[in-house]
Automatic annotation (TrEMBL):
PANTHER family: IMPORT ATP-BINDING PROTEIN (PTHR24220). Transmembrane segments: none annotated. One of its GO terms (molecular function) is ATP binding. Coiled coil: none annotated. Keywords: ATP-binding, Nucleotide-binding, Transport. This is ABC transporter ATP-binding protein. The keyword Metal-binding does not apply. Residues 4-236 form the ABC transporter domain. InterPro entries: AAA+_ATPase, ABC_transporter-like_ATP-bd, ABC_transporter-like_CS, ABC_transpr_LolD-like, MacB-like_ATP-bd, P-loop_NTPase. Pfam families: ABC_tran (PF00005). The keyword Isomerase does not apply.
Length: 236
């Protein structure tokens, strides 16, 4: 059963001669429980696609459905509610709240969901330990390295156990060992909790771990370059 459906989706930025066609009629289905990578070079449309799925941006034309809800028809308030309840997002730039410490950043989504303080605090501590940040709960983003901030961002995305996690280049700022451990963690959550993970990446290590690689070229899904199963050959 599909959790993501794109039907004839286009996205244009700007107007006239300066217009950029970021997506040019994308058709795509991603089923619940997938562990998929959106693969392609910079400028191929990977981040734009994730932004449209998450509702952070709106398509110029076409239909986007998430968990059978057509997001292209939702109000801004309804989109925010959908993201809050069903989607975790890991940004390239972390997007941590600078005045909150690591524990509070991870708690934030659960606080917005109205979860009990004791419950969300315990959950935040547990997830921070999973990403290797035990003992750093009281550190603010400015006191953390780039890799540590990325781990807080990933912890925040998975803390509420959403149905779908979208990750924009999740290993871009991490060393190989840390990146591998985080992919291990997300793969385990995918298998044990059934959370659907969709990454954008040009990292061969992430591509190899994905169970499906959706290749993008010039704003289109490249069916010839997409693969299912083992991507070792495709990633090298």
């Amino acid at each position: 059963m599909a959790i993501i459906q794109l039907e004839g989706v286009t996205k244009n930025y700007g107007t006239g001669v300066g217009q950029v066609r970021a997506l040019r009629g994308v058709d795509l289905v991603i089923d619940k429980g997938e562990f998929a990578a959106i693969c392609g070079p910079s400028g191929s449309g990977k981040s734009t696609l994730l932004n449209l799925v998450s509702g952070l941006d709106r398509a110029t034309s076409g239909r986007v459905l998430v968990d059978d809800v057509e997001t292209t028809k939702l109000s801004d308030a309804a989109l925010s509610h959908l993201r809050l309840q069903k989607i975790g997002f890991v940004f390239q730039a972390y997007n941590l709240i600078p005045v909150l410490d690591a524990l509070e950043n991870v708690e934030y989504v659960m606080m917005l969901q109205g979860r009990d303080l004791k419950e969300r605090r315990a959950r935040a501590r547990h997830v921070l330990s999973l990403v290797g940040l035990s003992g750093m709960e009281a550190r603010f983003p400015a006191e953390l390295s780039g890799g540590q901030q990325q781990r807080v961002a990933i912890a925040r995305a998975i803390a509420a156990e959403p149905r779908l996690v979208l990750a924009d280049e999740p290993t871009a700022n991490l060393d190989a060992k840390t990146a591998a451990s985080l992919i291990d963690l997300m793969a385990e959550l995918n298998e044990t909790k059934g959370i659907t993970f969709v990454f954008s990446t040009h990292d061969p290590a992430v591509m190899r771990r994905a169970r499906r690689c959706i290749a993008m070229t010039d704003g289109l899904v490249d069916e010839a370059g997409s693969r299912s199963g083992d991507f070792v050959a495709a990633a090298n």
